[in-house]
């Protein structure tokens, strides 16, 4: 080849370089400008801006820690402790949420793997025989074999952080799923505790009905004696029979509720109905006075699993926005294929058998019909949705804490009032019974004095169960002793920003 022939391609390449550089610069500017004007609209709420001072006025605020992880042991019922441990170990519900968390971690692993170079090896033996009617010898009429060994390398450098943002988005979703699994454990333990409390109330209601039936039977015996003595008529006897029937119906209803609650507990444990038959009568102590840490509301962020999971989803959505923005930038792909090929195995590793292909490739979207802008707009909307969900979860969490505290105080006041009224009713019934036995009163007076007793005892059973339920609600609202890991970085406020 002559020198003039060699210099010509070099001059052509030198002349083309400025043109290519100018074109690449223009395309880069055009690509970056295409995302202008797209940005999320919402920002996460600062928890300390949600005022709680007046709503929690009069509530005991202490420097005490949040509830312990085994908060249910405060009820001092070993059977309840064992039931919750069994539920946390065997419940199919928890198995499902754990599987979802593992799936989310696997997706994060896939996103991470996309950032790494790939190297593959392959070996292939192939052959062909062309008929002599198409190709005469030496090409046709003989079987020609080829043996190929290859290494294939590919890598797309993460120039703009898009791949890393995709990985971080998947990691954030995985962390949210892990925290959801913790929240599911708290929900399950709270459901077991509340069902157990309802079972205790059903037993107490059955006892009240049994006491009422015994009182009504006693009154009937007295009425029968007075009817036999000619002191009363059949009306008094029929009234006593009515009271006995009502009390018996109440006892049957309470027993039906006991059976249903035992079945519900067995299902929560992930067992069959026969497991519920082995659950003995609950023996619950009184719930402690309501008390909350003095660090509300800001510290609530780090203790409620649903709030922490919502924060992780905000972080994941922010990373999704970053990944969508990076798609507007040029990308570089590096690839190389190196191998050996020969018709005979003996020639496979000779210098003449080497083959190779590879090099960098640069690409930049110029016109895509608005797909990238639509994708970024979708990511912005997903971020706004995650922020709105986080803000609502935070508001709901503070409401649940306030509701539980206010309910506990209200139930304590109601229990005290009804207890005093029930004591007065017992004294009135004792006086009416004494007068009836002495012949100074009639059975109508005695029945009238008896009726409030039954009502007050039923109210007390319900109020005690509701008070215990409020204690469960408060422990759950304060996070149930869970300490999920919140995002370490500050949450991104992308509202009002644009990408140049």
Structure description:
By secondary structure, the protein is α+β, with helices and mostly antiparallel strands. It has 2 domains: 356 residues, Outer membrane efflux proteins (OEP); 75 residues, Outer membrane efflux proteins (OEP) (Single Sheet). It is built from 9 helices and 6 strands. The strands form 2 sheets. A 4-stranded antiparallel β-sheet has the order 2-3-5-6, with no helix packed on it. The longest helix has 67 residues. The N terminus and C terminus are likely disordered.
What's the overall average pLDDT, rounded?
81
CATH topology of the largest domain: Outer membrane efflux proteins (OEP)
The gyration radius over C-alpha positions equals 39 Å
- Total helical segments: 9
CATH architecture of the largest domain: Up-down Bundle
CATH secondary-structure class of the largest domain: Mainly Alpha
Strand content: 5-15%
Unreliable stretches (pLDDT < 50, length at least 5) are: 1-9, 29-33, 490-500
Tell me the number of structural domains.
Answer: 2
The first-to-last residue Cα distance is 50 Å
Helices and strands: which structural class? alpha+beta
Shape: elongated
| SSE run | HEHHEEHHHEHEEHH
Sheet of most strands:
4 strands, antiparallel
User: Could you estimate the helical fraction of the residues in percent?
Assistant: 55-70%
Strand line-up of the largest beta sheet: 2-3-5-6
Q: What would you give as the CATH superfamily of the largest domain? A: Outer membrane efflux proteins (OEP)
β-strand number: 6
